[in-house]
Amino acid sequence: MDGLKKMSETLDRLDATAIAQKIRTGECSAKEVLEITLNKIAAYNPSLNAIITPLYDQALEAIEDGLPDGPFSGVPFVIKDLVVSVAGIPSTAASKLMIDNIPDVDSEIVARHRRAGLVIVGKTNSSEFGLATATEPDLYGPTKNPWNPKHSPGGSSGGSAAAVAAGIIPMGHATDGGGSIRIPAACCGLFGLKPTKARITAGPEGGEPLAGMAMQHCVSWSVRDSAALLDATAGPLPGDPYYPPAPNGTYLQASKTDPGRLKIAFSTTAPNGAMINEESAKATRDMALLCESLGHEVVEDSPKFDIETVQNGFLLVFQANTMANISRMNGGKLPKEGLIEPLSMAVAERGMAMSATQYIHSLQSLHRQTRNIAKFYEQYDLWLTPTLATPAPLTGYFKSDETDVDKWLEQILGFSPFTFLCNVTGQPAMTIPSGLAKDNLPVGSHFAAPYGAEEMLFSLAGQLERASPWNDQRPSMDWMNNQAN
């Protein structure tokens, strides 16, 4: 036991790449790492409520059957309970409607996770159907932010972000249809990158989730873990509707290579007029100064486009797709009251009332505004903004019983006025940990890049991580002891 405790202390703050290396060299075994992880889950998860479907027996079985020799062989990992499938395990989207939805096959990204050697130890909490920027579904209850349990870890990938921030695992799967990788990463002090539209296949189940706006990848402590995982999971399946150009090299190599001198625009003013908290704005200004100190040209500027058209189009796409997902599980109809949350019902009802013509017009309007935004990147390499208007809100700030869809949209885009733009345009974007605000809450800075330019993002992220490391700034978790007392 003392040996396992000592090993746990050794592994405690290592990223997935370093843990895999120790397993590879025989300094520890995959079974020992799994045991340490399960001990952490037992200690932290009852308070956090991050992992809602344990897969501990399956994890041990995968190790005993022999793991592939991948970049993360033996490293524990979690899958968000939204969108993707793990064969034989309920895929609920945090909804009572889907508790009996048990897929027969892994999603392709899960198969690629397994081929990379990752050991799946559980599925993590999400908001119902990913609609909220918090993780507080009626089905599973709220997930707590490891930095401050009174606050949300963000959403909808809050379960994965909380598990990583608490140190249970070094990285975890996340999805992003309007910011759901970057929002919880910022709320929990993590690195989070949303890849370019279609960079990772949505197969075999889907073609272009949310009209191509939704992507998936991970939240992590280190840049190199995110880069190496994207190397392992990127790419289409035969028959995918489209896919972006392949990178020139590997994302991992890009993360180790300084990007050269970039021209970076920055802004602390939200396009939709949302009020930006001073701590969030200061983190962006400080990040701009850090970039300038590294030799980059930094200019205050922002793209010009019709924000009202973009927000309206974004809402229409969400409405239609929410209704489609719900009706697929319920014979083409709206479900009975109580099977989905009031907010989900209200959004689905709006989707049902839409015509096909409205939907096509909304997509066309979004494409026109995407072209307007893309022109901005003919002048600049990147656009730097706050990730969020404020640090993580209190639990309960976002209401699942809200039935005013317009009010819901105003609330979530008031909190996250920048992230959804890159879902609309398909651009890659990342959030970088940028220190702590009051109440011990992390703040993030957001970088958006041109279509297909993940290498540039990873290069800058690696440079920033080396210049101003964030890995040692972690939540103490002492609040759990106080809670127990």
Q: CATH homologous superfamily, by name?
A: Amidase signature (AS) domain
- The fold-level CATH name is Amidase signature (AS) enzymes
- Please give the share of residues in helix: 40-55%
Question: Can you tell me the number of structural domains?
Answer: 1
What class do helices, strands and sheet pairing give?
Answer: alpha/beta
- What gross morphology would you assign? globular
Largest sheet: 8 strands, mixed
Low-confidence stretches: none
Number of helices: 17
Helix-strand sequence: HHHEHEHEHEHEEHHEHEHHHEHHEEHH
Q: How widely separated are the two ends?
A: 26 Å
Report the portion of residues in β strands.
5-15%
Radius of gyration: 21 Å
Quickly give the CATH architecture. Alpha-Beta Complex
What is the level 1 CATH name?
Alpha Beta
Mean pLDDT: 96
For the biggest β-sheet, the strand order reads 4-6-5-10-11-9-7-8
Can I get a quick summary?
With 485 residues, the protein is an alpha/beta fold. The protein is built from 17 helices and 11 strands.
